[in-house]
């Protein structure tokens, strides 16, 4: 048999220890599929004395992860530290400079520095593999880059952050508010103590930027992603969504339009009957629409030791077999120069919920502001009557332009009869 693929793993946290465990537990199967054993021979983490739930004795230990890049006995470096800057970036840079293939689960690094790293990998002739960086155990990267490679993709949409999906699902199932469910998710370990990367949509945007680059054959462009998180979603809006036949999901969506590529992460109302509407809890899903294949949906666990390790090991098996594709599916010179479309150019239907003083003329003022902005209404909902007091009013628009909607909203928010900032949620025909 060919000699083992010698692997160095930097980062022995959730994912790193998961990779060591998976390589150990499924060693026979992996050897058969890889054509040779895959052996971790060196590791790096901060704290040498920390108890890990996999044994690391007998492995070469590096306090400095960048030193892994210079270990001549290693065939592959696996980066599982995290972060767009700092030791993770330094390690990947050093490994590629040394001509060593790299496997990483680091979406932040790929989203922010993916174009430069791909250039570096191309120059060095070394692979840079990142299946685990998007949607954990769901093979979304392979699906887009390889399985659907013959298609012109028109749109991708995904539930790309399990923490947000858990929070929105729990808010709906139990009629509870965001802050309440977030605190519970933190207690259960589904949300970080600093949850902003997740709940403010940044993590999902990193993943969307990566998927959009692959889907539309263009350089990764994180700065072009419009990002809104879920802090503003209220239990009231979730209840109205249910009444109107929708579910609220934080989606990452990238779409080919006549003007270029639109990419955005924000809460969406999706029809209850849409398959993605039924993806609840911590699960993730990715939908792709190709001109020959039609619609494809993948669903599964987007995080956690097992699913993420599964994706890392898939990349290692590819490397052991010598299977490699360009980092972004095509050589840099062959990537298309499609422009990014700003959010102001977006066209879609909107859900708008206002808290207004219940008195004659208020609705007429609101509808006049919408009419003046060229926005037409599909339906309106008002529950209960409380003369002189605050009542919610829900308006659903036909397809409208985002810039016009924003203009109308600024006007509406300034009315003294509108008591809270308006809640705006885009309706997405998933
Ligand atoms: N967790 C998931 O479910 C998941 C899913 C998909 C992708 N990812 C990605 O996978 C990567 C790892 O995530 P994780 O959840 O496994 O993180 P984690 O549990 O926080 O583990 C990070 C590891 O990196 C080590 N580390 C941190 N700074 C270091 C330094 N300067 N030098 C050497 N080692 C250092 C830590 O060492 P010590 O243990 O000694 O502190 C720890 O072992 C991230 O890019 C993340 O975005 C994670």
**CATH structural fold name of the largest domain:** Dihydrodipicolinate Reductase, domain 2
Give the overall shape. elongated
Give a count of the beta strands, DSSP E runs of length 2 or more. Answer: 17
The number of helices is 13
Structural class: alpha/beta
CATH homologous superfamily caption of the largest domain? Dihydrodipicolinate Reductase, domain 2
Query: Average pLDDT value?
Result: 96
pLDDT < 50 runs, ≥5 residues: none
Ligands present: NADP nicotinamide-adenine-dinucleotide phosphate
Percent helix range: 25-40%
What's the N-to-C terminus distance?
49 Å
Strand content: 15-25%
The CATH architecture of the largest domain would be 2-Layer Sandwich
Number of domain units: 3
- Which class of the largest domain in CATH terms? Alpha Beta
Main sheet properties: 11 strands, mixed
Q: Give the H and E element order.
A: EHHEEEHEHEHEHHHHEHEEEEHEHEEEHE
What Rg is obtained from the alpha carbons, in whole angstroms?
Answer: 24 Å
Overview of the molecule:
This protein is α/β, with parallel strands linked by helices and 430 residues long. It has three domains: 5-133, 3-Layer(aba) Sandwich (Rossmann fold); 140-301, Dihydrodipicolinate Reductase, domain 2 (2-Layer Sandwich); 346-427, 2-Layer Sandwich (Alpha-Beta Plaits). It has 13 helices and 17 strands. Strands 7, 8, 9, 10, 11, 12, 13, 14, 15, 16 and 17 form an eleven-stranded mixed beta sheet that branches. A six-stranded parallel beta sheet has the order 3-2-1-4-5-6, with helices on both faces. A hairpin with a 3-residue loop joins strand 11 and strand 12.
